[in-house]
Specification:
This protein is mainly α and 375 residues long. It has helices at residues 35-41, 44-53, 59-70, 72-75, 79-87, 94-105, 117-142, 156-165, 171-184, 191-200, 206-217, 225-236, 239-251, 271-284, 289-305, 312-321, 329-350; strands spanning 19-22, 27-30, 33-34. The mean pLDDT is 97. The chain binds carboxymethyl coenzyme *A.
């Protein structure tokens, strides 16, 4: 076998029409539209339609799509699933609950056994509508509070915050989550999407593919990084301590979460939107120090290592300013990225070939079996 780079770096696995990343210019396109344009003009629900169907919806299509994503029938969890959540130890992390919960959702899905495109779109709608309910329900249950029923009049972002807190969110909080959902919705063949596509390519179903995606997203090198960034901010404590703290971390050769990317060679184009919203929310909540700390860390890491902020650097500061617990940051990433996973499952099923790479074997080849009493 020939030479290769570890981690499938720069390996093209397939063609895709969903998402384009220009890592040198720092541009991210969904179906040809720049995310900078989408976050300004399109609510998250339109982005969902765009990613799944390949074009922005017209008025009639938008209304039907929003209705399907917002209906109580699609958002609610089966009472047996809520009962199942109540059985889990309270210390179970939200990502573990999400992984288990999405797997269990398939048991209640009327289309579970149908892998046609039509049924997979219906399942994608239900999973996208149910995941925020699952995340919010666990937040309530682990605090000993009853889950809040979804409100079909609210968009996905506002309804999520409403179910989490029991209160209607401010416009800025709802807008911030809506923009964050758009920014996290897809990112080409990232690790979790690739995991979802590998599962889909065995002709397995969308619930299984999404569970694969959740498992891959959970790790600190991927979606779990946003949680780690906040733990770093908590360790740094004050903006005055940030410069010395990060210089020491770099001198100790630490991996700094929220920085670096396999594809981007410049700042991740998503970071600036989250920096702006986190700054605004932090000022409103009287917690400007989160972003101040991160700005100092970003300046030092960029200057000293030429490694730039990625999407995970500022998202947590925005969520923390809203009072969302740190271990819910990665689940928020997941309730958005599920849309990309679903788009990729649909694309994989439409032009499927099993994904099955090779390993370059480096182990021994001529060993002879030794009976157990001679070992
Ligand atoms: N802090 C310190 N050094 C870094 C970092 C970082 N965050 N990222 C890369 N480097 C250095 C690394 O030490 C290596 O240096 P050297 O060649 O001297 O050994 C060089 O840059 C290349 O790093 P790599 O790990 O080979 O790069 P990769 O493409 O395999 O990793 C990455 C990409 C995202 C895993 C990595 O940048 C990283 O660990 N970042 C921190 C975790 C993080 O923020 N993840 C979120 C990624 S974006 C959103 C998402 O996918 O969820």
């Amino acid at each position: 076998m020939g030479s290769f780079k570890e981690g499938l770096e720069d390996v093209v696995v397939s063609t895709s029409e969903i998402c384009f990343i220009d890592g040198r210019e720092g541009r991210l396109l969904y179906r040809g539209y720049d995310v900078d344009d989408l976050v300004q003009h399109a609510p998250f629900e339109e982005v969902v339609y765009l990613l799944w169907h390949g074009a922005l919806p017209n008025l009639k299509e938008r209304d039907a799509h929003v209705k399907a994503l917002s209906s109580t029938a699609n958002r609610r969890l089966h009472p047996k699933l809520i009962a199942m959540l109540r059985q889990l130890p309270k210390k179970t992390t939200p990502m573990e609950v999400l992984r288990t919960g999405v797997s269990a959702l398939s048991a209640f899905d009327p289309d579970a056994a149908d892998n046609s495109r039509e049924a997979t779109v219906r399942k994608a709608i239900r999973i996208t509508a149910q995941m925020p309910t699952l995340v919010a329900a666990w937040e309530r249950l682990r605090r000993g509070k009853p889950p809040v029923a979804p409100n079909p009049k609210l968009g996905l972002a506002a309804n999520f915050l409403y179910m989490l807190t029991g209160k209607k969110p401010t416009d800025l909080a709802a807008k911030t989550v809506d923009v964050a959902l758009t920014l996290h919705a897809d990112h080409e063949f990232n690790a979790s999407t690739f995991a979802a596509r590998v599962t889909a390519a065995t002709l397995s179903d969308i619930h299984s593919a999404i569970v694969s995606g959740i498992g891959a997203l959970k790790g600190p090198l991927h979606g779990g990084a946003n949680e780690q960034v906040m733990l770093m901010v908590e360790q740094i404590k004050t903006p005055e301590r940030a410069e010395a703290w990060i210089k020491k971390a770099l001198a100790d050769k630490a991996r700094v979460m929220g920085f670096g990317h396999r594809v981007y060679r410049v700042e991740d184009p998503r970071a600036k939107h989250l920096r702006r919203l986190a700054t605004e929310l932090g000022q409103q909540a009287g917690k400007p120090h989160y972003v101040e700390i991160l700005n100092t860390v970003a300046r030092v890491v960029s200057e000293e290592k030429k490694i730039y902020p990625n999407v995970d650097l500022y998202s947590g500061a925005a969520y923390a300013a809203m009072g969302i617990p740190t271990d819910q940051f990665t689940p928020i990433f997941a309730i958005s990225r599920v849309v990309g996973w679903a788009a990729h499952v649909l694309e994989q099923h439409a032009h499927n070939r099993l994904i099955r790479p090779r390993a370059e074997y480096t182990g021994p080849t001529r060993k002879t079996y030794v009976p157990i009493d001679q070992r």
